Structures are given as C-alpha cells and as structure tokens.
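does this look right to u?? guanosine-5'-monophosphate version
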Amino acid sequence: MKKGLLIVISGASGTGKGTVCKELLARESGIAYSVSATSRAPRAGEEEGREYYFRTREEFEQMIADGAFLEYADVYGNYYGTPLAPIEKRRAAGEDILLEIDTQGALNVMERCPDGTFIFLLPPSLEELHRRIMGRGTESEESLARRLAAARDEILLGKRYRYAVLNDAVEAATERIQTILAAERMRADMDPAQFEI
Ligand code: ADP
Ligand code: 5GP
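got this back:
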C-alpha cells in the first residue's frame, strides 16, 4: 500500500499558515487536516474539534502522560499538541495528512518522522508580518508582543526545512505548495511496491 504524505507547514505566527492551509485543503480534497489540541482559549468563531480540541492545562498534561501526542510544545505560553493516533491510521491507509504547527513542533517531528514533507512559509518581510498579525486583531497586547518578539528567531529556523515557500499572495503560495506535493507523491520511498514489476 502506498503511504500517505505527512505534510508539515510551519512558520512564524501571522505569516498566513492558516489562510494558506485552508486554500490548500479547498483545492486538494484528498488531504486530511490534523486537528491539534491546545490549552489556549477559543477565538471568536472557532469550534471545538474543527480548529482545535480545546483542553485545560490539566487535561493536556494528562494527554502528555498518556503518550497521546506525536509532538507537543509550549507556544507563546500555551500548550499545543498533535494527536498521534489519527496520523498513523491515515497514513497507513494511504491518505495524506496536513499538520499546521510551530517551529519547535516541526523540528521534533523531523526527528520522529524523517520521511515527512517539511515546508516553511515565509512572509515577504518582517514589517509585512507585523502588519498581518496586527491586522488579524485576535491577540491581546501581551500575546502580540510575544509573537512579534519570537518572529525573527523563528524565521531563522526555516533553514532546517526541506522547502521554503514565500507567502506573498495566498493563491501563489498555495500553487507553490501544490507543486511540491506533486513531486513528493512521486518519491520512490513512498511506494516501494511499484518496483516489483
Ligand atoms: P498564521 O496561521 O500563520 O498565524 P493567518 O493565516 O491567521 O496566519 O494570517 C494572518 C493574517 O494575515 C490574516 O489576517 C490573514 O488574512 C492575512 N494573510 C494571510 N496570507 C496573506 C497574504 N498572502 N497576503 C496578505 N494577507 C495575508
Ligand atoms: P494560534 O494560537 O495562532 O492558533 O497558534 C499559535 C501557534 O501554534 C501557530 O504557530 C500554530 O501553527 C502552532 N500550533 C498549532 N497547533 C500546534 C501543534 O499541534 N503543535 C505545535 N507544536 N504547534 C502548534
């Protein structure tokens, strides 16, 4: 059976990961989105089980103890984690799965799953990143300051990824990711059976 891709999209907060992933999922119907758990409070319009599984810090810590996560990280003061079970199940069934996670989480997944497709999304500039995250209007002053302060160091971690994609415009960035995925689906290691002819 051909193994599904583990697609990891990462980048500094406000780069446009959520926006680009949404566009990608609309264009590629075969990709499942990995819903993370988090201890942060829901934003207006967010739904339990759609954007995130919202958990208390205590519940989250119990999930860590139970080994429920592929990776988890403390991001800007809250826990975020990728549930392990659905990923293994979907990939084994040949289904591609998309993780939208922070840089610490992505670096941990690189260790555990080196066959993943690691994509770093870049903003056109630090100024534009600031404009985008402030324009989104979802953060408290403290959360905004933390995210902006972390941005430059986070972007430097992009060097460790296989792919770097510029998010200058949503459509163009999504097309670049689709080009990467088209090539990744032809990777020899994804389907060893094809050589047994
Ligand atoms: P992230 O998930 O990386 O934190 P979001 O997807 O929430 O980022 O995007 C942050 C803000 O930037 C949103 O208001 C979004 O509409 C906007 N945005 C995303 N991509 C672009 C783009 N290519 N050009 C202009 N604005 C963008
Ligand atoms: P937000 O609070 O803006 O939804 O997300 C904050 C950051 O946490 C983003 O960079 C987002 O990609 C990241 N994130 C979301 N889910 C996970 C996860 O499961 N693991 C890790 N490590 N980071 C995550």
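Residues 141-156 form the longest helix (16 residues). idk if thats expected tbh
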